Structure formats: C-alpha cells, structure tokens
Amino acid sequence: MQCKERPQILKKSRIEQIDVREASTKLTSFLNANQESQVMPSFIRAQLLKIETGLKGCTNVNSNIDG
Q1: Is 19 helix (H, G, I), strand (E, B) or coil?
Q2: Count of other CB atoms within 10 angstroms of residue 4
Q3: What b/e string do you get for 12-39 counting C-beta neighbours within 10 Å, with b at 16 or more?
C-alpha cells in the first residue's frame, strides 16, 4: 500500500474509504484498548503493530507534504 492510497474498511456490507490518519487513530485506539487483555494472539498483535507503524509513517510523510 502506498501512502497516498486510502485504506478500505468493510462496514455493514459495503466498502467505506477512510483516510490514513483516521485508520492510524482507530488502530492505535484498538490496540490500546486490547493491550491488557490477553485475548489477542501475539502474532496477530505483532502484525497489527507493523501496520500501525506503517500507517504512522504515512501520516508523517503526508503531514510534511501538507505543512
């Protein structure tokens, strides 16, 4: 995924596009909320952390371009 692409999220049987900052914020909130619970397997959490890092890299690039 390139930083300029908008991630697609399935929501109520339709595809909705959200911007990278919103995706990063939602993923960070999800990870923080599930940090204490041990329900999520560690390999899934590791993959989500990689995605979060990638999204944050994209938002940093975009904010440098915008401002």
Answers
A1: coil
A2: 10
A3: eeeeeeeebeebbeebeeeeeeeeeeee
Q: Which two tokens stand for residue 47?
A: 């993959």
1 vs 49, higher pLDDT:
49
Note the pTM of the prediction, 2 decimals.
0.54
Average pLDDT, the chain: 72
Please check whether residue 23 is in contact with residue 44, taking contact to mean a CB–CB distance below 8 angstroms. no
Inter-residue contact 6 to 19 (CB < 8 Å): yes
The residues, any chain, with a CB within 8 Å of residue 56's CB and separated by 6 or more, are: 24
Residue 67 is encoded by which pair of tokens?
Answer: 């401002």
